[in-house]
Amino acid sequence: MSPTRQDAWSQDEDLLLAEVVLRHIREGGTQLQAFEEVGKQLTRTSAACGFRWNSFVRKQYKSGIELAKKQRKEMKKQPVANEVETFREAVKVEVDPPPTTTEQGSAITFPAVIHFLEALQQKAQASSSMEADRKKSQEKIKELEKKAYYLAAENERLSKNLKAIEEDYRSLIEIMERARKMVVLQDEDKQQKVKFQMDKNGNLERIEK
Length: 209
Description:
- By secondary structure, this protein is mostly helical.
- Helices cover 79% and strands 5% of the residues.
- It has helices spanning 11-26, 31-42, 46-60, 62-95, 103-106, 109-193, and strands at residues 194-198, 204-208.
- Strands 1-2 form a two-stranded antiparallel sheet.
- The protein is rod-shaped and about 145 Å long.
């Protein structure tokens, strides 16, 4: 498992983050996928990438985000335009058959057009269903992204608290060590002050200085 980085973001890393996120927006991907991609390249967590994007980088690329969204809409319109063009070509071929077409052959024209329209309608209905599923998935992803950002911020807060507790613990150990040394010095000093003398009966007695 590769270690995750905790150092500050460089300008090149911010640029890479912006390029990947804008590409995912333009191609219809999700920001979470973009954060995961950037995280693998920079050995950072996707949550850290998301936090950096929302707290700093996104503000620098407002016009780029709008342009990417506009390009995504244009890309979505292209399949519909292709279907319409295909329909026009099919109708043109069926309505204007070549001169060699028999009368019996030209009678197949309208059922073919109806069949094509029915198929186009089925595709449109399937597309609507997929769009609804996509919106639900995007909402779920947004909820998960918010939760990931919250957990990243909470993790940072707990890390700072842990660091402060460790510093307080070291300070307490130093104070206790100084107190212990002072007690030892006091005991040694008391021992040096004790003297003995002989009384009248020839017994030793302790006297203080």
